[in-house]
Amino acid sequence: MTGRILIVDALATNRIVLKVKLSAAFYRVVQARSGHDAIGLARRARPDLVIIGDLPDMKPADFIARLERELGTPAPPVLALLPQGQGALRIAALQAGAADVITQPYDENVLLARLRSIMRHRQLDADLGMPPDTAHALGFAEEPAGFERPQSVVVLADTIERAEALRTRLAGSPGLDITALGHGEPRAAAALRRAPDAIVLRIGPENTKPGLILLAELQAAPRTRRARVVALIDDDIAHLAAPVLDMGAHDAQPATIDDHELALRLSFQLSQKRRSDALRGKLEDGLQAAVVDQLTGLYNRRYALSYLKRMIAEAHAAGQTCAVLVADLDHFKSVNDTHGHAAGDTVLAHVSARMRAALPADSMIARIGGEEFLIALPDTSLSGVRHVADHLRRVVRDTAVPLPSGDGPVRVTISIGAALATPTTPRAQTDVGKLVAQADKALYGSKSGGRDTVTVCMRPAA
C-alpha cells in the first residue's frame, strides 16, 4: 500500500519503531516531534494520514481541531495512539473527528489493517471530489439544503434479542432511524434493500462464518455497498478484527465497547457517509451538466455525436438499419423578435419536452444548436423513420405554447431531414459526420420545399 503518513511523537524511539513497521508496508513516512512542528510539516508535505502518539505541546483533540483549521476541509485523517486509562482523551479525540483511536500496546496487524481501511476509503472519496476552485467555476459547489433527513441504521446480529440489545445501546443517538434484525429474519433482506446509511454488524463465536459471509455480501450488493459498516467482534474472536477491516468494514471494535464511544464512532461513520453522498451527488450533477442542455433537458451535441458513433457501430455489427434525423424549428427568429428571448426559451423548452415524449423509448434526442435538434433511431427501417419523423412534425405543429407574459399561445412548426445507414451501406460511408451531413442536406430540402415537412435522404452517406 502506498501513501504518505506523518508520525507525530515526542519520543524518537516510538517514531523509529513505527516508521520501520510502516516502511515495511510500503508507506512513505515523515516525522515530527510536536504538534506545532507537525502542523507546519503537514502544510508542506500534505500527508495522506497522520498518526499521533505522545504530543508534548497539545492534547490530541486540540491538534485535530488546529490541523483542520490550518489545512482546511478535508484535512488528512488522524489516527491517535493513546495509552490505556486515557478514556477522557480518547472520547475527546473521537469527538474532535479522529478517524480512529487505538489503545497502546496495539496489535500490529490491526493497526496496519486500520491504516489500509482509512486510506482505501479516503481514496474513494478523493476519486469523487474535485478541486474547490473547479467546483465553484463549474457551479457544483452550491450550499446544501438546510433540511437533512434522518439517517438509517440497520443493526444485525445472529439473534433478534442481541440485535435489540444493540439498538437499545444506540437509542440515545439523535437523528437516527434504527432497525434491529436477526441474520435469518425474512424482513432482513427487505430492510437491506432500502439502502441503509450504516450497518452495525455483531460477529461472535456462534455466527463467525455466517457473519463474515454476510459482510462480504454487504460489500458486493448494490444497495448496501455504500453503507458504512461498523463491526462489533466478541473477545473470543478478537483476532478477526484485521481480516474484517480488510474485507471492507469501516470500523471494527470489541463488542464490549463503551456505549458512548460506540455512538461517537457510528456518528463519525455517518458523517463520512453524508459527505461521500454529497461528493457523489456533485459528481453526478457535474457529469449530467457535461452532457445535458440546461435549457431543454435534452442531451447536448457532445453526447449526441458520441452516441451516434456507438449506435452506428452496433447497428453495423448486428446487421440492422439505424437513422439520424436533424430537425429545425421554422421561423424561430420571429418568435424571439416578436415576443422576446425569454419567450423563445419557453418555446424551446416546451417543444423539446413534447418531442421527447413523442419519440420511441429507445431513441435519443439532443439539442445541437439554437433551435436545431438531432434524433437517433436505432434498429429501424425506412417506413419506421418516415412514421416517427411525420409524427414528430405533427406533434410540434399541434403544440400551443403558453408564454410567461400571458401573450400567445405561440405555435411553431418544424422541418426534418433524415438519413439512414443500412446493413448494405459500406462501413466507410456510415461515418458519423457523413451521416449527419446527409441528414442536414435532407433538412435543407425540407426548408426549401416549404417547411413543416419531412425529407429522407435516399442516397448512402458519402
From TrEMBL:
InterPro entries linked to this entry: CheY-like_superfamily, Diguanylate_Cyclase, GGDEF_dom, Nucleotide_cyclase, Rev_trsase/Diguanyl_cyclase, Sig_transdc_resp-reg_receiver
Alphabetical list of Gene3D superfamilies matching this protein: 3.30.70.270, 3.40.50.2300
Record-linked PANTHER family: DIGUANYLATE CYCLASE DGCM-RELATED, REGULATORY COMPONENTS OF SENSORY TRANSDUCTION SYSTEM
Ranges of residues in domain Response regulatory: 4-119, 152-270
EC number: 2.7.7.65
Residue stretches making up the GGDEF domain: 320-459
Reactions catalysed according to its record: 2 GTP = 3',3'-c-di-GMP + 2 diphosphate
BP terms from Gene Ontology: cell adhesion involved in single-species biofilm formation; negative regulation of bacterial-type flagellum-dependent cell motility; phosphorelay signal transduction system
CDD domains, sorted: GGDEF
A single GO cellular-component term on record: plasma membrane
SMART domains: GGDEF, REC
Protein name, UniProt field: diguanylate cyclase
Gene Ontology molecular function terms on file: diguanylate cyclase activity
